[in-house]
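Chain A, query sequence.
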Amino acid sequence: IGEYPLDKERITIGRKAHNDIVVNNLAVSGEHAAVITLGRDSFLEDLNSTNGVSVNGAPVKKYVLQNNDVVEISKYRLKYMNDRVSQLSAKDFEKTMILRAPALANAPDNYGDTGHFKPMPVEPKAPAPASAHVQRAAIQVLNGSNAGKELDLVKGLTTLGKPGVQVAVLTRRPQGFFITHVEGVSFPSVNGQVLSGHPHPLHDHDLIELAGIKMEFYFKG
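Chain A, predicted structure.
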């Protein structure tokens, strides 16, 4: 039983000692799963484990985590939390580890002393400025056996690369599209410039190189 803050972009779960969360059980793969946290969102990904990963009883490969989701790995359960919670009994936490998303700075306190949700007045949202609109976008593979293939970036999170070698994620945000390195010793590059560990904004016709594959990012009309 333990509590693990999601205080970095990528946290791995598995049996081997180098993982951020070590689960010492033979039914758990050496590197079983990863939790990727980008801004307010956390994503769970099965790292091709032998026995799989389930969320709330359903098997998943990639999953956007929501508050109070229960991740099941073998006989162990990990409860994802991104809000304060009331005190629960020890029985509720039996064989349960908690993943807690980092608290947002200056976040309003919506909870009373009892731990119950305290309603707050909802202010009408102002219309988003036109500049906040995110255009449709895609990537096209430029070399290798998949040269010429296109992938429309319609999801909030798209994973690219080769697991165990080099992996990056493309995220769609109100401010635009970003690429972030999540796995591998070497980092991907954009227009010949090697990325840092931080999200990098993408612009029309940027050239991405990842795990030996060259791709072009572009906006669609």
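DSSP finds no helices and 21 strands in the chain. The CA atoms of residues 14 and 31 lie 4 Å apart.
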